[in-house]
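Consider the subject:
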Amino acid sequence: MSKDIEKGGLGASMKKIREIVEWFDTQEEVDVEKGLEKVKEGAELIASSKKRLAELENEFAEVKKKLDDEN
């Protein structure tokens, strides 16, 4: 899991992704190496966010199943 997901959770990762997008939006000329670094960071954040979302879905499904089993 990404360090951002571990440190601040899904919200922190989404904020960082928005910051990366804003960085690209504000550049008149993008430095190719810096841009590639940002793309790699964004890709890692997106992948770890997708993984965390899947984990959360599973947790919600487990809670729902427990509630359904109790009724």
Residues 3-70 form one domain. The chain has one domain: 3-70.
